[in-house]
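Fold these two proteins, one after the other.
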Amino acid sequence: MRIYDFEGFPNPARVRIALAEKGATSKVEFVHVDVMKGEHRSPDFTAKNPSASVPVLELDDGTTISECTAITEYIDHTFEGIALTGRSAKERAVVHMMQRRAEQGVMDAVGTYFHHATPGLGALETYQNKEWGEKQKERALASMRYFDDVLAKQPYAAGANFSMVDITLFAGLNFADFAKIEIPVDCTHLAAWRARMAERPSMKS
């Protein structure tokens, strides 16, 4: 299988962390897509993913899967090891609920702020609405406070066990650093969780 991505970008990082957690990094081929030169908008690439975004997983039979949650789901059920999407029906439901909150509230909100409120992005963004970007910054900060409350009561973002929600939230906070959105200083539980996550080998790599 192949993964088309741009190493160092936040969403590709989520998939790379998931693979590392499963001990499966060496079992896939990574194909570089030069997003900075607009390769993600080429006809060849949009045939794989009409959304023109990375990462994309391509299976040996030609099937292409985009969206990090879907790719992580496939990885989780393909390779042995830690469960990233939950095991019981209840755990899986909670993981997917919290995944949605982490993705929309932090990762996507930070991404929208970055793409709409950052000047001079060139090939990365062909349309910008700064006011919308600033509104999404507010949403990202509110979501950080929400997860701070969550992590005051449990060790991981979706409960007692590490999951893809922790991957998404961690990558989202790293993206927030890049976008110059600081975690509120009173979010001490979120900060402590982040420091703990940073020690995981998958996060370090």
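Now the second one:
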Amino acid sequence: MSWSETALAALVVVAVGVWLAWVSASRLDRLHRKVAASRIALDAQLVRRASAAVDLASSGLLDPASSVLVADAAYAVVDDAGPVASPEQALAMDGFGAGRERAESALSATLRSALGDADVLADLRSGPPGEQLLATLVATWYRAQLARRFHNEAVAQAQRVRRHWWVRALHLAGRAPSPRTVELDDQMPDAMAGSGPAVRA
């Protein structure tokens, strides 16, 4: 093999390596952007769920103790969520933090306690205001569950790509931190989860 043929082969290998690195870096960048977008969407859905919980708590349709507990738990979520995340915060991909996740889980537990009884749900559905408020809460809760599932799937995809040896060896992730899943209790009460029409509202 002549010197020129060896040089050409080496050049081809380098070119293919550079192309593969560029493809991998582009894919990783798209996955990071997907994680950031899904995090913003999840945040919005969870805030809507908290808002729907506040509307229900302030409607006077729940008993006074449940109204106070639901309102407190929902306001804790809104306070922890704070203002709409800036692009820099969203691109940090660092999940929501333990405080926000605890607040969201506490709201889920409080709502399950207040709405876990089938008789309470039947009373709420007996009139238009309660039926509409409950339908809104169920719909926002269901969308929040879906948004969290999509976000965590996007995080898992990005983490899988970042684990490839060539991504680590070539530092294709740059200084971007590894994305984190959002882990919280978002289980809906069984009696509400079976509300097919309400979920689609």
